[in-house]
Amino acid sequence: MENKIKRHEFLKSLGLKGASLLAVYCGASALSSCQNESVTPASNVDFTLDLSNAAYSKLNTVGNYVIANGVVVARVSSTSFAAVTQVCSHEGRANVIYSGGGFYCTVHGATYSTTGTGTNSTGSRGIKAYQTTLSGTSLHVFS
């Protein structure tokens, strides 16, 4: 049977204490592959989605959304779309989706209107929203 030792116990066995132990923990944490790094929302967005393309055809149905280029694009009515950054303002991670008529962070529960305005205390800072225009089957998303 294999005996495993926890990181804390291993470091203590090396004689590390106090500040040196904290420095090792912090340094090791910065190198961890499990760490979620924050992301900055794109300020200059300019792309077009072809709604006849299978990858974006969900946008032909009200209430559906897609994520493209770090932007959550949702069909909010038969005539309008909304687009916001996928990056939540709470901790700067790409966890925003469209749900129930607004945008929602799946990790922290922050909620945002279709214009990016925060609608609860976690989302109070709001998120970056982008403009959309539809021409035929081409949906232009831009800053």
Can you characterise this structure?
This protein is 14% helix and 29% strand. The protein is of the alpha+beta class and 143 residues long. It folds into 2 domains: 1-35; 46-142, 3-layer Sandwich (Rieske Iron-sulfur Protein), CATH 2.102.10.10. The strands form 2 sheets. It has a 6-stranded antiparallel β-sheet with strand order 1-9-8-4-3-2, with no helix packed on it. Strands 5-6-7 form a 3-stranded antiparallel β-sheet, with no helix packed on it. Residues 18-35 have low confidence and may be disordered.
Structural class: alpha+beta
Rg measurement, Å: 21 Å
Per CATH, the superfamily of the largest domain is Rieske [2Fe-2S] iron-sulphur domain
The count of β-strands is: 9
Helix-residue proportion: 10-25%
Overall shape: globular
Largest sheet: 6 strands, antiparallel
N-to-C order of helices and strands: HHEEEEEEEEE
At the first level of CATH, the class of the largest domain is: Mainly Beta
Beta-strand percentage?
A: 25-35%
The average pLDDT score comes to 83
Parts with pLDDT < 50 across at least 5 consecutive residues: 18-35
Widest sheet: strand ordering: 1-9-8-4-3-2
* N- to C-terminal distance: 59 Å
If classified by CATH, what would the architecture of the largest domain be? 3-layer Sandwich
Count of distinct structural domains: 2
Helical region count?
Answer: 2
Oligomerization state:
single chain
